[in-house]
Every structure is written in structure tokens, then in C-alpha cells.
Amino acid sequence: MKALVLLLSAMVLASWFSLFEAYGLTIQVVDLSWGSPSNPEKAIPGDSNVELSVVVANIGNKPVCSLEAEILPKLNRSLPIASWETGKPLKAFLQTQLNPGTMGSLVFRVNVLEDVRPGRYEADLRLSFRECTSTSDVLPVAQMVSSIVLQIYPPPSMRIIRTTWLVDGIERSVGPGSGPAVLRIYLEAPVETSVSNVEMRISPPRGFTGKTLYDAYLERIPAGSVFVLEFPLVVSDDVRVGVHSFDAEIMYRNKYGTMVRMVQVFDVEVLGREEIVVESAAQSVAKGSYGVLKLLLKNTGSAPAYNVELVLRPDDFRISVLDDKLSVGILQPGDRREVSVNVFVDRSAETSVYTATAAIEYRDGYANHKSKEFRIAFNLVEEFRRGFKAAASQRYIYAGSSTSVELIVINENSYTVREVRITVSPDTPSVAVVEGETKAVLDSMRAGQSYVMPLKILATSQAGDSVATITALVEYRDQAGVKVAESLAVSLAVRADIDIRFKGVQLSPSRVRAGETVDVAGDVVNEGSNIARAVAVELIGAPPYEALGESRSVVGLVNPSQVSAFTLNFRVQNNAQPGKYNVVVKVSFRNGFGEVFQRETVLEYEVVQGNQLSATTVSQPVQQRFDPILMALVAVVVLALVGLAVLRRRRKQE
User: Fold this and answer.
1) Per residue, what are the HEC states of 25-54?
2) For 308, how many CA atoms within 13 A lie in the half-sphere containing its CB?
3) Does domain 276-381 have CATH number 3.40.50.300?
4) pTM, two decimal places
5) For residue range 433-453, what is the model confidence (pLDDT) as tens digits?
6) CATH architecture of 15-152
7) Is the pLDDT of residue 200 over 60?
8) CATH fold for the domain made of 391-495
């Protein structure tokens, strides 16, 4: 009975195909792929919203329209996929006309079941279509069934391609007792798909301090790309030299968001390692000269380093290293070797802290070439360069006149300089060099040698109480042949033109008796061209001089050509003996620098027993002063007396 049913079915199908072929309608399945035909992919269990592309060809002689495809399970079998739209059949449509000799792609959007196993699954593909050129609506829709195979792939593996150790951020081998280190693992994403949210857990074997370690890379990683995960741990003294196996669990999501878990075992090598370090103490180098930088090389590792060489590269172009490469040879574990590197610093470099790169190249016990770089720092200073010094033979010049000054230029460098050129010029407008050579050219100057330039410097009156600057520009070539220019400033104080003199100083009276008071009066005049400050007049005397009240009179400022009066007095002691005595009148004043100057005059007075009054000075003659009004009154009185005498004589004669 079953055989009869199959026979009848075959006859029906044959009649249908005969009918389609009679009408010239034949469709053939050409290809089936995950993704697009031009970019095929591999679907794995759990993928969702995956494209399944079925390529069909019209091998008939008439165009086909309304092409519809449906995936059906084989008899007594299940499908490994389901429609992306839950509860709907697995159907796809071709919206365009399929002409004879052309191909079209039917795209299914499916979910791969999570519990399905990777493998090949057979299914039926039922195609429904009709002839596009027919105007009849009563023709049946043509159908045909093809057998297809759905390939479900196993999840692609994440491959560990290399492991390495990092110590202090530098890639190097580790050995027993290395301490903190980072295990860097290079992984390659599957070539079939891009991945994201990669997580990895590793379990270190015995001797490595730390429990399960974790790291993640959450960004999208293109298919076949390499990325890095890092795991910090401690290499203890108990770690043996050799190969160690690590267990790893890797989880990631593919492009469809499917979570994939995989377990791997990978090997990590631990070797005895050399550890070369470079140390540099605080050092200073003078700019514009040669210097030596001392470096200490040490092998703190557990294996020797061979063919060790040192190259120093300054980070500034103004610093030159005179030794290209220094060969150190073999550094055994625990060895220390000090090396000296000669450098030259250009004079244009600024005073600051500079750095250099110390590159170490060597070979390990396996003849592998290795290199490391260290940063060292040193100070660039000027204190070590003595240069030139300039000085003057005296500190002061005088306003309103010219002063002879010797300018002395001294080479304080510790070496002979050549092509020396000295140019002298004042920086103050009110000061000028009126005599002497202001330029000098010398072939050389030895260390400590001095050169004297005699000058006559004129300062105007307005320069009084100021500081004038004379600049000496010294140009020369140092021991390295580098041209150097130094500007040396010499300061000269300009003393003001102040000339305080006494005028009309008198004693009144000049002849006194014991116990009487003597007045001293007069004027001070400034015959200079600058202001005199803090002008004061005082009396100084020996017995029988006796101060009476304030013996000092403060005048204050006295301008040029100004006359200022003063009055002082003193008393003659009661026990004074007759005779001639002196009293000193002293004036003191200051200039703008606070310097004190003094001038004095001496007056003579006589102690007598009479009552005669006269005034005299030793330093200048006493001048008589007559009042015109008094003279006129005296004349009137005399004329009146003469008139009275004449009248009396006439009366007597009468």
C-alpha cells in the first residue's frame, strides 16, 4: 500500500513538471549561503536575525513572477532554524521578475536554535511562482520542491598567538624572584566574524602569586584582527625556570550578539633574565664648555649580559656627545661599571634642567639582540663659567667736571682666550668719555690677565647725585673656538657740585668782659650747581667759651646760589682772664648719597675789663656799616648847634 502511494505521488509530480516544462517554466537552486552570496558567513548555534540567502536561476524560456520560497523540514525531522519573526513560517519572496537565463536571491531572516548541534541538516525548499506573460487568472500557480542542506558551524575559536612579559612597562623576560610583572597575551579574533565584549580569565599555576585573573576588551574587533589583554601578577622566588601551563576561559560575542565560551590551555616561558639598569647622580655641566657625565651600569638580574654598549643621545640639539658609542663588554649578575661620557654644551643653551636618553644594547644568553632606554637628567649652569670682569680705579666722578678713571678688564676664565675686542661706552646721557681710547683689539689674553684703559669722563651738572653706568662689551673666542660676547657694566657714583661758603660772619661784640654774651651772625651761600642737603651751622670753642642754649642752627636745603642767614651766641665764663680767644664756626651738609661734608671758619674775640665793642674775624676783615638816616640826623644836630652858637655870639656883641 505504501509503495502504491509513493508511485501515485511520483506520477502526480511528473505530470506537474511535464506541465511546467510544456509551458517553458523551470527554476533551479544554484547556491545557498549564510549572509550574502558575495560575503558568506558561518552561522553558529544561538545566532539571531541571520540572513540565509538562496540563489535560484530561471533556466526556462519564459519570465517568472511572484517567486516565493519556503523552507520545510524533512519527513520526521526538525529544522535547526526558526523564523526571526516568532511564529511565522520560514518564507522569502522575490519581488522582481526573473527573466530567462538570470538569477535571483531569496533572503530568509532566521534564528539558529541555541540547543542545536553543529552539523549538516537536510530540509526541503518549496518554490512557488507563475508565468509573467500570461493574462489568464485561471492558470494554477506552479510549485516545485528542492532538497537543501543547512550547515550549522561550531563557534569559531579565539586563538592565542603570543605571550610576553612586561616589567616596568618594558617587554622583557622574567625569572625567579622577578616580582611584579604583567603577562601580556596577544589574541587573534576569528577570521569568520568580528567579535566584541571579549572577557578572559586565567588561573596562574603554582609559584605565581594571585588567584584567578580577569581582563576584558569591550570594543568591536574586526575579523582576524589582533588585540591584547594584560594580567598583572607576581613572579615569586618559587617559580621554576621553564614552561608553565595556564588555564584560560574566554568569552566573547560575535556580530549577532551570540555569547561564545571556550576553554584553552596556553604555555608561558620563564627564563633566568639579565636586568641592565643605568643610574646617574645629580650632575652639573657648564654651558659653553666641555663636561663629563658619569653613568653607572648595573646588572641586577640572574643572567649575564653580553656585548653591552652604551649610546647617549641628548634631547636638545645644543648639547653634543663627543663619544659615539662606549663598549662595556660583559656584565655578570651583580656587576657594576662606571662609564664617563664627554659632552659639549653650546653657549646659546639656556640655564635649566636637561635630559638625555641612555640607550643600552646587549645580547642575552641565547644571542638575542636586546636594547633598553633610560632617561637621565643633569643641570646646565653658568656658575662654572667665570668669563670676564670689569672694574674702575675709583668709585666716584664729579658733576660739572671731567675725572680721570682707569677701566680695568680682567680675564677670569681658566684658559687663554683669543681675538679679544673691547668696546667701552657710557649708558647715561649726561656722562661722556672725552679722552682715551674706547676700543681695544687684542690677539689673546691669558687666564687672569688684565687690560687697563685710561679714560677721562665728563659728567654734566645735571648728573649730580646719580649713578652713571659705563658698559664694556668684551667679544672673544673661547677654548673651543666659539665666539662669546659679554656685556660688563661698571657703576660710577657722580658726586654733586656743592660749594658751601661763609659770608659776612661777625662777632658782636668782639671785646667782652667776663660773664657777657657774644652774638655770632652771618650767611652761608651755595656757590655750586647742585642742592646741598641737611645744612647746619654750629659753634665750637674752648674755655672761656661756654655754650648758651642751642649752639647749632639747622638751615636745611640750600639751592645753588642761595644765601641763608644764621644767628648763634655763646657766653664768656665768669672767671675768664683778659686775653684773646678763638671760636670756630662750622657748617656741615650732605649730598644725595648721604655723604657728609664740612667747612669752618675761625673768629677771634678779646676778653677785657673795659667796655669797648668791636668785631673782627681772622678769616676776613670787619666791615663798617653806616645808616644814612642816622648820618642825616647827626648833620641836622650839628647844624643846629652851630646856629645856636652863632646867635649867642651876636647877642653878646650887641
Assistant:
1) CCEEEEEEEEEECCEEECCCCCCCCEEEEE
2) 27
3) no
4) 0.43
5) 888 888 999 999 998 899 998
6) Sandwich (2.60)
7) yes
8) Immunoglobulin-like (2.60.40)
